[in-house]
Structures are given as structure tokens and as C-alpha cells.
Amino acid sequence: MKKEVLFVLLLLTIPLASAQIYPLKCFDGLKDGDETGIDCGGSCQPCGFSVSNIVSENAALLYWFIGGMIVIFIFVLIAMFWSSRRKKQQEQPQQQQTFVGLEDYVNQMLNQGYTHEQVASWLTQHGYQEEVIKQTFAKIIDQERSNQSNV
Q1: In terms of domains, do 71 and 124 share one?
Q2: Which of 143, 144, 4 is nearest to 72 (CA)?
Q3: In which domain, by residue range, is 12 found?
Q4: pLDDT in tens, 120-149
Q5: Which residues contact 140 (CB under 8 A, 6 or more apart)?
Q6: Cβ 105 vs Cβ 119: under 8 Å
Q7: Backbone phi, then psi, for 111, in 5-degree steps?
Q8: Number of domains the chain contains
Q9: Cβ neighbours, 10 Å, residue 119
Q10: Confidence class of residue 112 from pLDDT cuts 50, 70 and 90?
Q11: Do 73 and 14 sit in the same domain of this protein?
């Protein structure tokens, strides 16, 4: 993740490095040095007020800035996707352990005299998915059948 952030920061500094930097005397409001006008001409370039000069220089920086923000946004989305995917992969083994524990619990409840419907209703009320409940009962029934055929 650190490499990606450094790469994005490097990309964002490219337009700043290529931007022309003017001396401080170009912003003092005086006609001094090699200026041909107030803060223009000579090393301060361009001379004469032109909206197109200002817009074209600032537009390039704006495009780089917006592009950089889009790249950063994409990296953040990718990082969020990988993080959520990793979290789901870590949760899967816990779900399998819960399933085994659920099977033992259902067997205990059935041995105490509760019906299949009562146990299934209780599990549904406590947030277990219907498919998990069906699979658990199917396993228990299969085990009972195999135990009866072995006797």
C-alpha cells in the first residue's frame, strides 16, 4: 500500500516540477529589474493582461490535480475492495466452526425433546440463515439413518 501512495504522490508532483517558476520580484507590484511592465516582461513573462494566458497555465495544473484526485480515489476503492475481501476470507473458517457447533447444539435440543420445527424456529429467530438450518438438519438426519443401518 505504501508503494502505491508514493507512486501517486510522484505522479502529482510531475506537473509542479514542469510548471514555470517566476522570481519573487514578479509579484511585488513594482516595475523593477528587467520587467517591461509591472510584474511582467523580461524574466517575469508574459506581458500584457491576457485571460487566455492565465487560463491556459492554470488549466493544465487543474487537469493534473483532477487527474491525481481520480487516481487517488481509484487506489482507495481498490484498497477497500481488497480489505473487505480479506475480511470475508478470514470469516469463512469461523462460519464452518459455527456450523459444526450448530450441529451439536441442534442434536442436544432434539435429545431434550424439542421438535425439528421448534429448533428451526428458534434458529431462524436468532439470525441463522434458512439454508444453514436445512443443511444442519439434513446432516443430522443422514447421521441418524447411517446409525440405524449400522445397528
Answers
A1: no
A2: 4
A3: 1-79
A4: 998 889 888 888 888 888 888 888 888 887
A5: 103, 106, 107, 110
A6: no
A7: -70, -25
A8: 2
A9: 21
A10: very high
A11: yes
- Collapsed DSSP state (helix, strand, coil) of residue 37: strand
Of 60, 79, 98, which residue is a domain's last? 79
Choose one of 79, 102, 126: the last residue of a domain.
79
Res 73 pLDDT > 90: yes
Residues forming beta bridges with residue 127, ordered by sequence position: none
**Three cell numbers written together for 131:** 439454508
Q: Cell for 49?
A: 493582461
16: which 3 cell numbers? 509542479
Name every residue whose Cβ is closer than 8 Å to that of residue 10 and which is 6 or more positions away in sequence. none
Residues 21 and 73 in one domain: yes
| pLDDT tens profile 6-48 | 665 565 565 555 556 778 787 787 888 888 877 788 888 777 6
Instruction: Tell me: do 65 and 96 sit in the same domain.
Output: no
Exposure pattern of 17-44 as b/e (b: 16+ CB <10 Å)?
eeeeeeeeebeeeeeeeebeeebbbeeb
Cell digits of residue 116:
425439528
